[in-house]
Design brief:
Helix content is 42%, strand content 15%. It is of the alpha/beta class and 254 residues long. It has one domain: 3-Layer(aba) Sandwich (Rossmann fold).
Length: 254
């Protein structure tokens, strides 16, 4: 009997770019990738936070550097990335939300959300994929989407629109780049407790709604995303592309 060989989750010798690494899910993903051996480039608009993160990672023996990047500025993407890389792994955790009822949504908020969550994500993913293509390398590109890219939510019409669109281009790009060994997937978290979402959880009515919808009966932590990103970034998921990995505690199961 020949036993199958368990695939490796190691990211040694992988060059990873984490966008939105200054806090929350992006920061957690950067730590996870670095812990599993990747050389990590931390990218964000708030360079103070990523400088501190890079120092802490390097102090414990990881390899981390920083990059000032605003994905809503397409020229900024081109200027910063074309002279670097290619990146074997991309994790895009940059995103914003402007919650309001549809009838109250203004054009400025709509444009701001779509410029980051959709346009920025699209061109960032395409730029990293094209670098890999040019260098004839395979890779794993991961966009942090949301359960709201699968379902709808009150006061989240624009946010939902942006994340549903991310799911759409992820599938299309996965088909386009798949023959070249470039995998493109999303991770779809439920509500994760971070500094940015703390105000939502402090609202008793909203927290009750969240906890009732999450079948496992607890809110998400950034640590819940770390295993998912290691899986998709590593060779353990070598046959996974064009997929949405739900980390939602069962929210979308119904």
């Amino acid at each position: 009997m020949n036993l199958p060989q368990t695939p490796s989750f190691s990211l040694a010798n992988k060059n990873a770019l984490v966008v939105g690494a200054s806090s929350g899910i992006g920061l957690a993903c950067a730590v996870a990738l670095a812990d599993y051996g990747a050389k990590v480039t931390l990218a964000a608009r708030r360079t103070k936070n990523i400088k501190e993160l890079a120092e802490k990672l390097n102090k414990k023996g990881c390899d981390a550097s920083i990059l000032d990047l605003d994905i809503s500025d397409l020229e900024n993407i081109e200027e910063n990335l074309l002279s670097k890389g290619p990146y074997d792994v991309l994790v895009n955790s940059a995103g914003i939300a402007k919650h309001s009822l549809s009838k109250n949504t203004n054009v400025s908020d709509f444009d701001e959300v779509l410029n980051v969550n959709l346009k920025g994500a699209f061109f960032l993913t395409r730029t990293v994929a094209n670098q890999l293509l040019k260098d004839k390398k395979s890779g794993s590109l991961i966009n942090i989407s949301s359960q709201m890219g699968i379902v709808g939510g009150l006061e989240r019409s624009v946010y939902c629109a942006s994340k549903h669109a991310v799911e759409g281009f992820t599938k299309a790009m996965a088909i386009e780049y798949g023959p070249y060994g470039i995998r493109i997937n999303t991770i779809c978290p439920t509500f994760i407790l971070t500094e940015l979402t703390r105000s939502t959880f402090e609202d008793a009515k909203k927290r009750k709604w969240i906890e009732e919808k999450i079948k496992l009966g607890r809110v998400g932590k950034v640590e819940d995303i770390m295993g998912a990103v290691i899986y998709l970034a590593s060779d353990a998921s070598s046959l996974v592309t064009g997929s949405a990995l739900m980390v939602d505690g069962g929210w979308t199961a119904e």
